[in-house]
Every structure is written in C-alpha cells, then in structure tokens.
Amino acid sequence: MHRKPTEVGDRKTFETVIDARSPAEFALDHIPGAINCPVLDDDERRIVGTIYKQTGAFEARRVGGAMVAANLAKHLREQFADKPAKWKPLVYCWRGGLRSGSMVSWLRLVGWDAKQLAGGYKSFRREVLTLIETMSPQLDLRIICGPTGSAKTRVLQAMAARGAQVFDLEDCARHKGSLLGALPGIQQPSQKHFETLIATAFEALDLSKPLYVEGESARIGRLSVPIPLVGNMRAAPCIEIEASAEARLAYLLRDYAYLGDDAELLATQLGKLKEAQGKETVARWQAWARGGELSPLFAELMALHYDPHYEKSQSLHFAQWTGRAKVPAAELSAEGIDRAAEAVLGL
C-alpha cells in the first residue's frame, strides 16, 4: 500500500518522536520532545564511516548492519518494552535514510504503526529557519530596556504572571547576556538548538497580541540572535525601567550572588576587561572578587563598565529609543518588580 510521506508538520500527531541519530548529533540539536534511541552510537558511526571511505559501501553496510541490529534489539528490550500494540511512533534520522528506515522496518514488523519523517532532521531544520524568518517581522514587539541591574527579566516574568505575552530570549540562550552572564553549571545550547527553542516559542504566540521582550544585543553569550528577529527588535518601541544605582546594586547582589561561589572563575572573567578598563582597575576588581567583596565590585562595574556604554548602545541599536516610555522603579524588591510590571502593562 502506498503511504503518504510524513511531513514535519505532522509530528505532533504522534505519541512518541524518536531520534535515531547518534547521541552527539542529538545533543547538537533535535526536535523538541524527541527521545534519542540511536541505531549507531558515536563510536559506531565513526567506524562505519571509516570503513565506507576505506573499503566501500558493501562492507560498511555489512558491519553497520550488525551494529544496527544489536542496537535495535537493545531498544526493543528496554526503551520500547512497555509500548502497547497501538503505539504510534515517528522516527527520524539525518535525511530520512537508512538509520530511521531500518528502525521503522523493525517496529512495523513487531506490529506498531511506525512512520518515518520525510527528509529527517534536515527537513525540521529548514522549517525552524523558515518559521523564524517569516514570523519575526510579524511580531508586535515591545522592548523592555534598562541598565544592568534593572531587573528586566524579573519584570518580564511578573508581566507573564499577569497574562502578558512575553518571550525570554535569555532563557532560550541559558545566559544572562552580560560579561558575567554565564549560569553556574549550565552550558549554553548550540546555535542550532537555540534557534529551535526560539522557533518552538514562536509556534505558541498569538500574533494579534503585543509581545514583550528584553532589549538584547545581537549576541547572548556565544550565541547569535537570528537576524530577522534582531531587525524587528531594533525597530520596535522601547520601554525603559528607571531604577537608581542603589536599587540596582541591591538587586545585583541578590541576583548574582552565586558569582561569589567561584572566586577564581569570577576573577578570570574580569581579566577580559583589561584592555577596556586598564590593568590597575581590573587588578582591584580581581582582588575584590577573590576576597568575596561583591558590593564594591558590582558598584564599580556598574559605574565604570556597564553604565557608560548603556545610553550610547541603546540609542545606536534601537530606532525608537529617543521616544521611549519610562517606568520609574524606586526599589527592586519582589513588590517593586510587581509594581513595575503593572506600570508597563498600564502604558
């Protein structure tokens, strides 16, 4: 019987999405919600690839086939052991080729209604890029701005709790965006997976409602914000959270307290500012870091590093900066952040 190809848009109709690629490929990026059941692990994939180059396709298929059979048997005994007769999985590999095809064949022999994703991961990747490119210009953005320590992310979270449509780019990037924005024990995703997370968030948006997003630079840590999204952000209206230096310092000491847990790492990060701030200043900051003196360190980082660049960068990057709305925030406690969120929504 001729079967209609299963396209990327059909994936949500399946109970389980199975990524048959190697663990390294899966870690780089994958369809959200997919489980990794490789038919060849990373070492096996390298071995088969080497045989293919040195000996040819037949020998690679012979050796690889034995590995695939062993791995499929393992998955049938373990991952798929409790699946009912009516289980309906969708399987994909790189291009929708031998790896996913072999798994689908075995699953169908068992009796499950397994399907293979046409075009594999590559087709999903194309959809991600197309979705970002087509949706970014349609977003009715409102950019939340403010100098470092203005609690912009917390304000966005408080707005979301009040029903506003909010998009947290820093959460997708697993990074706070600044020099010291790396999160302890958390690695940033790959560029591809960052874009997958963005596209997944876009799918849930209501284009008829405004979308509030923090005023980010074109890079968050080592990741690049997609150009179509950056373009819309740069043209969107801005709302600035205005808080005093004292309120911001108090907030930073709470929000970045974990930086004191690894004094040597913090000192190393500060070393990257020697060219911009001079050896003497950075040496003082590193001494404070190693001594756990975060209050004077953060105060000087604000005064000498972050704040001097803030106004210039905002006016350079955001076309509507001069006409921005301003929301005063006397203090940035939980209650103060809630008041700021309500004020933004009241504009």
Task: Please name the defining characteristics of this protein.
15 helices, 51% helix, five-stranded parallel sheet, 347 residues, four-stranded parallel sheet, alpha/beta, 11 strands
Task: Categorize the overall geometry.
Answer: elongated
Kindly state the mean pLDDT as a whole number?
94
Helix proportion of residues, in percent?
Answer: 40-55%
* Strand arrangement, major sheet: 6-7-5-10-11
Number of strands: 11
Give a structural overview:
Helices cover 51% and strands 11% of the residues. By secondary structure, the chain is an alpha/beta fold. The chain has a five-stranded parallel sheet with strand order 6-7-5-10-11. β3 (89-92), α4 and β4 (115-116) form a beta-alpha-beta unit. α2 (42-54) packs antiparallel against α3 (57-77) and α10 crosses α14 (294-317).
